[in-house]
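Practice problem: predict the structure.
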Amino acid sequence: MARPRSDTTSLAKEPHSLSLKALAYPSDVSDQDFVLSPNLSLPPAFGSAYVGETFSCSLCANNELLEKSVTKSISGVRISAEMQMPSHQSVSLPISTPEDDGNVSLAPGASLQRIVRYDLKEEGVHVLAVNLAYTETTKSETGPSSGRVRTFRKLYQFQAQPCLSVRTKVTELAPTEVPDKSLGPYGRSFLVRYILEAQLENVAEGSIVLEQASLLAYPPFKATSFNWDAKSGADHEDEDPLLNPRDVLQLAFLLEQDAGISDGYEELKVNLARDGRTALGQIALEWRSGMGEKGQLTTGTLSSRKRA
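Answer:
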């Protein structure tokens, strides 16, 4: 999960009575030995954001009227947000809490905080659009006047970058010969096998710990891992590899056709007879960055090479 940031710059100026900020929850306790400053700021580009991680941000609507002000009241406060993706699609982000009915009233100096989260799936420019709507009522000696609905909108643009670069290579092995009674008493059939190699490069700005790398094999294949996680045991967690920026980790998997799996067999037979190229599966990766944020990525479909 991407680190929540804070922004002490108001997103809206007068004549609005409310301002919208991205704030960390305040604390009266300051730990001088803590690695992060209590006065974090949110830059216009949100810092680094990586595909596979969760973007997270705390939004705060502040009533900036003076606490002694009695001429205006703020009610019906609602914060909404949407994420505009590089593919030009927009997704509404759920930020309301169960008890929030959209009719929150804010006293002078009070604030309303909400957290938005979004799993980054695409590489490229993202835009976080935040909308704030509220009703401003002016008070007079004769009583409150009709409320005026006010809205404003703030856009934040940031770049989602890849965290892991994946390069793969598939090598066909000699097939395994097994008995096949469907071909007669002495019938034999051949099961194809492949070695899939993958190079993972950390292209992020910080170090990551790779927690899992698995091959999701398509039927009728089964996969065997030759990597660090193939060893089971209580100390497995301590053996997860650490990748510093630009470090490369080599992975290898064995893919074997399973004679006991009929699903996908006919398609495999047709593909092998045509050009020898067939779909093998996908690699699923999970990691954590330096601050413990979890990231995950699944590659596209990996296939064997065409035969000459």
